[in-house]
Specification:
With 159 residues, the chain is α+β, with helices and mostly antiparallel strands. Helices cover 35% and strands 10% of the residues. The strands form 2 sheets. Strands 1-4 form a two-stranded parallel sheet. α2 (50-58) packs across α3 (108-129).
Length: 159
């Protein structure tokens, strides 16, 4: 980040997605930016209930070759008939007919661990930056257009 942030494409600032993930990383980022009299000027937290994340993430299936993604509820492939449970046999790519796959960490057990880590290590970052008045929490459990409108409003407040 230190080297990349000095590049010409970052002259007007930069966005970090998914970083920092711990308060320690946030403090190190603050220190690094402070060396150049810079600072974090906005933190946008996309908030979605854990139960919704579980439904979204555990229903994902991907066509590895193309990157096309499907979802058993929200964007099922044609091969998944209504009322059927998704299996490796009936989850096929619409274009090629090849089998779809699930990421190894898109299981309920793996997601439970990821969410525990998120709540224990990442959520406290919001408390770290709240005194600076730069945290905006966005309701990401709504239509994409509404989420984007909230993000744009948060970005418009950046000084």
């Amino acid at each position: 980040i230190k080297d990349a942030s000095k590049g010409p494409d970052c002259k007007n600032g930069f966005i970090l997605d998914g970083f920092p993930r711990t308060v320690e990383q946030a403090k190190n980022l603050d220190e690094m930016l402070g060396e150049n009299k810079e600072k974090v000027n906005s933190v946008v937290a996309l908030e979605v209930p854990d139960s919704v994340l579980t439904e979204r993430i555990c229903g994902r299936w991907i066509h590895k070759e193309s990157g096309r993604s499907y979802h058993v509820k929200f964007a099922p492939p044609k091969s998944l008939k209504p009322g059927e449970k998704a299996t490796e046999k009936n989850m096929k790519d619409d274009e090629t007919g090849q089998p779809l796959m699930r990421r190894a960490d898109d299981t309920e057990a793996a997601l439970k661990k990821r969410l525990e880590s998120y709540h224990a290590q990442t959520v406290p970052i919001l408390k770290h930056y709240e005194p600076a008045g730069i945290v905006t929490c966005v309701n990401a459990n709504q239509k994409p257009e509404a989420v984007w409108a909230e993000i744009e409003a948060a970005m418009a407040k950046i000084k």
